[in-house]
Specification:
Elements: H1 9-23, H2 27-46, H3 50-57, H4 65-72, E1 74-79, E2 91-98, E3 101-108, H5 114-119, H6 127-142, E4 147-153, H7 160-164, H8 167-179, E5 185-194, H9 195-199, E6 206-210, E7 214-216, H10 220-228, H11 234-241, H12 245-250, E8 256-258, H13 269-288, H14 292-304
Parallel strand pairs: 3-4, 4-5, 5-6, 5-7, 6-8
Antiparallel strand pairs: 1-2, 2-3
Length: 312
């Protein structure tokens, strides 16, 4: 069963009528309803608010990291564990073949269904998850394999155990190490890029966001609670924070916006996976034109360019 958001109620109504017409084999009605659906989709998605884009970024039917990895890779093999504490299931790491070349893909996985969500900790990594990321990245560096990150998390897990095992240190270590990792890296925000949990996998040569994804230092609910002591003002916070792909592109905090299907990746997963695959191919081709020293210098320069200040 498809999940519809509040602003998709007219799309839901047409979808239901279309399904009924198909069951009845009413071809004329199917043709009319299909055209009506296309018009309604164009109308609904033409002028989405920032808060509606946030809802799409969190949509439970969006493709998750594993969906992209298993669709794009051939002969893939999953790598487990940080070799220090344990294996964090909210972080998935695959090595495999992508369009004829060996590659490593790492992603944050939210999970589907109650049992799997609990197993994946709702996509909120523990310190051992980020240390697994770094271990696999160092392995990729050793064998000169490109690394692709899929970012999709509400944030790093804030529990007592995670803090006791050095959550902040693990994130900081990744920021430091990934900034100087000597191999090609690409980071793609495929859904919700939340706080340091996203930043820990957001340092790369090329950083991109799906059209209906978000990237922020804190959730809009958290921002509203801090600024206005009212978590229900998340819609105002979302607009003020400028966390959409278009906003971050205009601020030059990311390199590219990936144009997912108009109706969203949650309604057309195959097309979404296809455009992400094409983006990775183009990004790798661009990075292949640069030698290691040039690539590392450019990565460092773009990190230093973040932020703005004014001298008085």
């Amino acid at each position: 069963m498809a999940t519809y958001l509040d602003f998709e109620k007219h799309i839901k109504q047409i979808d239901e009528e279309l399904s009924a017409a198909k069951i009845k084999d009413d071809d004329p009605a199917v043709e009319i309803l299909q055209k009506n659906l296309e018009k309604e989709v164009a109308k609904t998605y033409k002028n989405l608010s920032d808060y509606q884009k946030l809802q799409l970024a969190r949509h439970p039917d969006r493709p998750y990291a594993i969906d992209y990895m298993r669709a794009l890779l051939n002969d893939y093999y999953e790598l487990h564990g940080d070799r220090a504490f344990g294996d964090d299931a909210s972080i998935v790491c695959y090595v495999g073949s992508f369009v004829g070349r060996k590659i490593v893909m790492i992603g944050e996985q939210k999970g589907r269904g109650t049992k799997n969500k609990i197993r994946r900790n709702f996509g909120m990594p523990h310190p051992e998850g980020y240390r697994k990321v770094l271990r696999v990245c160092k392995l990729a560096e050793k064998f000169s394999l490109p690394v692709v990150f899929f970012v999709d998390t509400p944030g790093a897990y804030p529990g007592v155990g995670a803090e006791e095992r050095g959550q902040s240190e693990a994130i900081a270590r990744n920021l430091y190490e990934l900034s100087q990792l000597n191999t090609k890296t690409i980071s793609i925000v495929i859904g919700e890029g939340g706080s340091g949990g996203a930043l820990a996998m957001g340092v790369a040569d090329r950083v991109a966001m799906m059209k209906y994804s978000v990237f922020s230092v804190i959730s809009p609910e958290g921002c509203a609670a801090i600024l206005w002591n009212d978590p229900t003002k998340q819609e105002s916070a979302t607009k003020a924070m400028r966390i959409t792909a278009e906003d971050l592109k205009s601020l030059e905090l990311i390199d590219d916006v990936i144009a997912e299907p108009l109706i969203g990746a949650h309604r057309d997963k195959e097309s979404a996976i296809s455009v992400v695959g094409n983006y990775i191919i183009q990004a790798l081709q661009f990075l292949d034109t640069q030698d290691s020293k040039t690539r590392l210098n450019k990565r460092y320069e773009r990190i230093l360019s973040f932020g703005a200040y004014k001298e008085e």
